[in-house]
Amino acid sequence: MAALVATPRRAGSPRGIRDGEAVTGWIFTLPVLLILGVFMLVPVLMALWVSFSDWSGRGSPLSSDVGFVGLDNYAAVTTDGGLAERDFGVALRNNAWYVLLVVPLQTALSLFLAVLVNRAVLRGRGVFRTAFYFPSVTSSVAITVLWLFLFSTSGVVNAVLARLGITGPNWFNDPSGVLHNLLGALGVQSGPDALTQHGLLGVTWWDWLAGPSVAMSAFVIMAVFTTSGTFMLLFIAGLQNLGPDVDEAAMMDGANGWQRFWRITLPQLRPTLFTVLTLGLIGTWQVFDQIYTGTQGGPGKTTLTPAYLSYQSAFLSQEWGRGAAIAFILFVIIVLMTILQRWILRERR
Amino acid sequence: MNRTTRRLPRKELAWQTGLYALLILLALVYVYPFLVQLATSVKTEADAAADPVSLIPDPLTWAAYGRLFLRSDFPVWFANSAVVTVLVTAGRVFFDSLAGYALARLRFRGRGVVYAALVAVMAVPTVVLLIPKFLVINQLGIYDSYAGMVLPLLVDAAGVFIMKNFFESIPTSVEEQARIDGAGTFRIFWSVVLPMARPALVTIVILSFQGSWNELSHFIVSAQSPSLTTLTKGVASLASGQLSQGSQYPIKLAAAAIMTVPVAVVFFVFQRRIMNTSQGAVKE
Prior knowledge:
The complex is a heterodimer of chains A (349) and B (284). Chain A is mainly α. Chain A has 17 helices and 2 strands. In chain A, α4 runs antiparallel to α14 and α12 packs antiparallel against α13. With 284 residues, chain B is mainly alpha-helical. Chain A: This is ABC transporter permease.
């Protein structure tokens, strides 16, 4: 707008100074559009086709000898009752427990860290912020390698536990479910028939309720460790945007620190909380790097995730249609989760 | 700050002491794993297994580093990661700012559509794109080449957004002056606007550097030959024990430590800006 006011001085060209803008605009955005189009949009369409085809990985998926198989690939992982369905069910169970634990834990811990760092009125705020944030900048591969060492049978974690008189588990080699172990400690070794006779996606209800395996729990701890720093920064930013007025007024009214946090600070942090939960939900359904580097789905498939299963089906088992189908189901899950979470948070406003 | 320190009432002082004790304890928990990583990388394998908690190697040995650099593919991985990271970062700085500028300043038919398309692209989870990306890279005949590894990463929608937001936040007067003086749009962009955009460009550099240095899945689906292996892929293969028998933790942790160094350096150099970057990201 300001441009139009400033330009009339240049007389002569009746059509104004912004002539070539349409062309320039497209030229400037062309590289981005081209690359995103070719490596994002086209691939998604191609994969959508592959998920409906019987392509075996040889030649081009667009060649004429590749057949259309309808929903077969989707059926294979959801209704056929075979191994593929069971694997998908197991992967969903593993990842669901992972999400159920990681999202609340990382949100709570990062909020806790943010409040602590924010309350520190003396020196060293920056040092603490750096210490908590540093794990977030390192690569997931490097962290996984470190984790394999920390949580190895004779590793650091078990050595520390031993000093406390606790015998640590075999972490990355232990496929037993944490909830099943707890029940086992209470003397419950097997589930009631109602749970063991029926199930979903080839996995009995009893096995759905196994909880994350001990191996998966190590990944849960790792995710909380690496992401809490990033989210802490978001919460610190949110806290610093809050005016002190309301808090001070509440203090006058005699509310203690605990009440002020729950009744005043937290409700005001809702937008940040929403961002953190959304990013957490999206991120935790995409676990891939850690599994690829660390366990390749083992032990006993208890760290298998849909993302890794999709990769494994396509690149290792050459079941490309099935791999693509899993990827699209995962996509739908992520979208649904985000919408659901948006809806839940909106209801309570 | 100093004044606050002196005037703290006793109750508040006790509170703060407890707070600091807790903060120090937590910071130790966060930092200790990385110290263990460094210490173990200069331990012998027997020492690493016998006393994993200790931060003092006994005896101290550089064998793991010697092994990595002199008798493994590690230097190749490092070089590949460096090449890819430099190319991707350069590409993103240029193309993201170019497109960001067009979206912020130039008025052209279809701008709204371009903007909407970028929003849509940002919403697609990357893991879903593994198979799709491979299909296209394969179809284009650039599988197992630097082109296949670099081209798809050369622009990113998030970077375009950061640049667009930045350009919208600076006044147009300087550009208009240059325009009146007869400079063309690209000329204005290159010699007038870009120099002003340094803070945003640094943000793009940091994000691209971290993103491409730490990228794993894209390189898994875009190349397979050993000569094109990047650090992430190489170290991941080390983790599953491809270099040798036994646990070999000193070597694995040395490799992980070295691959952390470049991002750590960038982190400490640009620390303040990184912290602010993530803060700015919320407001989008």
